[in-house]
Amino acid sequence: MKFAIGTLQLDYPTVLAPLAGITNLPFRKIVKEAGCGLVCTEMVSANGLVYGSEKTRLLMQSSSDEKPLSVQIFGSDPFKMADAAVIVQESGADIIDINFGCAVKKILKSYAGVALMKNPALAREILKKVRNAVTIPLTIKMRSGWDSSGKDAFHLAQIAQDCGVDAVTLHPRTASQGFSGKSNWALIAALKKQASIPVIGNGDIAFPEDALEMIHQTGCDAVMVGRAAIGNPWIFSQVHDLLQQKSIKPVDMALRIETMKKYLHASAAYFGELNACRMMRSRLGWFVKGLPQSARFRHAITKIRTCQESSQVIDEYYALLSNNLF
After folding, report:
1. Which residues pair with 148 in a beta bridge?
2. Fewer C-beta neighbours within 10 Å, C or N terminus of the chain?
3. 3-class SS at 229?
């Protein structure tokens, strides 16, 4: 089941959601290897790009083995957003995504993210400026808006379509919901009936079966997975199995251990060994959630400082499970 965004053909209709502090290059590479159709950076500040922030540019660092790549930018100044989009295009990104869904207070105070859904005139100006500035596919990600009706999303989707946006992602929760409550998939179905551009559904996909159910219920063209991919990047290949009416392949422990080590070493190369190991003190625990002795493993990684120490803890946990020493 292939999927196209503008001129870009994707092998699979699955997209990694941008997750602040998580969807960096090492994590994206793991997800891509696990079968994701399209990976996306965490949110990148348009202001940071325009003013030459090295920390901001690092968020866009990429490699050929994660392609195609979508870079998500946020901001509220149409001219700076257009300039930032040019920088993103020149960096080699395949898609530019604009954030209309972040409800974090700091973003709202700058009139970006979901705040733009209250100002359709400004949203239109941003989309026009960005579309005129770049040639690669342009997408947006939004929430249902500021109330549960979805009218803000439907209006913004029409504006986006009129401005030449190539696809739209809808996370059908309101600005005030955050990640609480239940996402309203009926709004995705309604948007799909309205729009003439591809619609990507997002929200409450915890298991591969949920992605299949979303497609069946809403008719969306692709699914975006966020939190469920943390610790389980294989959810993407499992979704593809279901779409092809195949049985889901279980993730064996050897693959899980191999992936943890790849993530560790890729993070060390990207962030530096000590910084990476500090991050891994929590993140390696993602991959053992629900497994026997996972609490023991999480405790063992709380003080790791080197890749060697980390690998040793991983190997000891693997031996523990392999030999049923618990």
Report:
1. none
2. C
3. helix
Specify the domain boundaries for CATH 3.20.20.70 within the chain.
3-243
Ordered mean pLDDT values, 10 residues apiece, the chain (326 residues): 90 95 96 96 96 92 95 98 98 97 90 94 98 98 91 97 98 81 93 97 96 97 96 95 91 93 96 95 92 92 94 93 71
User: In terms of Cα–Cα distance, which of 141, 160, 167 is closest to 220?
Assistant: 167
| CATH 1.10.1200 residue spans of the chain | 253-322
Rounded CA Rg of the chain: 20
- Whose tokens are 């009218």? That residue is 151
Residue located via tokens 């948007």: 191
What's the one-letter identity of residue 314? I
pLDDT tens-digit profile of 273-313?
999 999 999 999 999 998 999 999 999 999 899 999 999 99
Segments of 130-243 assigned E as strands: 138-145, 167-174, 199-202, 222-225
CA distance 81 to 91: 15
The CATH number, out of the four listed (1.10.1200, 3.10.620, 1.10.10, 1.20.1740), of the domain defined by the range 253-322: 1.10.1200
Hey, what CATH topology would domain 3-243 get? TIM Barrel (3.20.20)
The string of DSSP codes covering 96-113 is: EEEEE----HHHHHTT-G
Of 36, 102, 163, 220, the catalytic one is 102
Q: Could you give the CA distance from residue 159 to residue 165 in angstroms, rounded to a whole number? A: 9
Q: Does residue 102 have an active-site annotation? A: yes
Length of the chain: 326
pLDDT tens, residue by residue, 121-173: 999 999 999 999 999 999 999 999 888 889 999 999 999 999 999 999 999 99
What is residue 113's DSSP assignment?
Answer: G
